[in-house]
Amino acid sequence: MLSATSRSTIKKGAHKARTQLELLHSIIDESLIAHIAISEETGPVVIPMLAWRVDDYVYIHGANNSRLMRNLKKGNSTCLTFTLFDGWVLARSAFHHSAHYRSAVVFGQFTAIEERAEKDRLLNHFIEQIAPSRCEEIRLSSDKELDATMLLAIPLTEASVKVSENDVADDEQDLSIPVWAGFIPYKTVVGPLVASETMTDTPKAPDYSMAYGDRWQNA
């Protein structure tokens, strides 16, 4: 269960708050994109980054000279947001149109993973998460490549989850308006694979469907 803090307690739309740790994990694992906030001399900046979870930590990686990575390596406070959009809610009034979504916000500070073998393990974990068993076939990172990459970790000790999945919230006096009300679902689909133009032979296409469940499509 998520622990509420002054920053993670949801006040607006509190009925949409969720406290299940498993739900936080699932939102991060499905999204894999975090919008990360930093404060610079010129003002706040929010940058989208690939992000992945291993147990109770979220990891990001980037070049050593990245302004975002250098800022976060200092231990500055930040927040990460993950959002999965599930569809539009169409009401009988303009005011009550809304959306279905699942979102998570993580607060805290990043720390750097410096040990080369651990950095390699965690970066390969990300590859395995998006393409199971791929690390058995590809060339793994060289020491030079690992040294050129900064890897940062943030713990999931302070986070909030919000889910909007309610029915249309029309006012009682609007229920008699003769207009359709309901939902426009959005679904993310994955696949099928598209081969690179650089391929000169025709190895059998791998099967990564196990990583995506019912989101995978073959054609």
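That was protein one. Protein two is written in the same sequence-then-structure order:
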Amino acid sequence: MTTPVVQLQSVTREFSGTAAVRDLDLTVERGKFTALLGPSGCGKTTTLRMIAGYLEPTSGAILLDGKDATRLPPERRNIGMVFQSYALFPHLTVEKNVAFGLRMRKLPAAEIRTRVGEVLELVGLAHLAKRKPKQLSGGQQQRVALARAVAVRPSVLLLDEPLSNLDARLRIQMRQELLRVQRETGLTAVLVTHDQEEALELADSMVILDRGRIVQQGPPREVFRAPATRFVADFLGYENFLDLPGKGPVTIRPEHVRVLGPDEDPPADAEVVEGTVASARFRGTDFAVTVTVGDRTVHAVSTDDTLVSGAPVRLCLPAAQAIALPHDDAAPDTTASEPLQQQELHT
């Protein structure tokens, strides 16, 4: 069994007596892409900075390649880091920016030239080697920052929300670029992001934090399909929280809630609730439908272009798509014994 590249053992970090990270245990496997995600203030960036050595834990241990690195300074950790702000030297050319870390490590000039050439080819920027950062687009600058981090052949590549400054289209392109580089090099990577789509697309392992603690981790598909708590479900876009008779508190994604036609019969295992359309927003291929049920709101997805505000509708809630939540994690004032038809819905 191979030694994990990064291990955090009961790590806590406090600022002025307040814990930003609490008793955290985390293992990052070799060659894998791990994503740390959660809302602002959840502790993900603090965790990344402790792995990098920019912050020391208040308690606990950090192991790199099986060795205690808790007090090691950043320059002795063999870490590559890509920042949100790129952090390129504006007066240096692309190739000199990429070579910077290699020169700091006092590698022979011939090896520096070879490595710089290799990583610029890897990120598709060999033809721009003599340009300076101001002559590059945002995406190109981010690729330079990635090349600089990869050139030192780090034990682990740390990515601190590296795509957040790019526009939506470029973010998608750069996700694919990041994944390609990671797969081709076999690098171990840890990504900090608040973007669930980014984590789902890139990560082999997804770690969700809340208030300094890990609340769920695992392969992205498993975490997405089976959120363990209401917090995780809400963070991953499960907008509907309700009680189903015999099931207790559950969550159902909007795309699994169907708007039934006037004469359509629901499946035998589904619950049906009646309500009124509050809005139907066109999204290109379908409509995001908001339905008022009593004093509650349910979100659904439909391709019916005749839905208008105020129209009566029936919603089909398939039991197979209802994910059970812990009773103590559900919305307050639920009453599992009351049928859904009596509008015991929780948003």
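The first helix runs from residue 44 to 52. Keep this in mind for the problem set.
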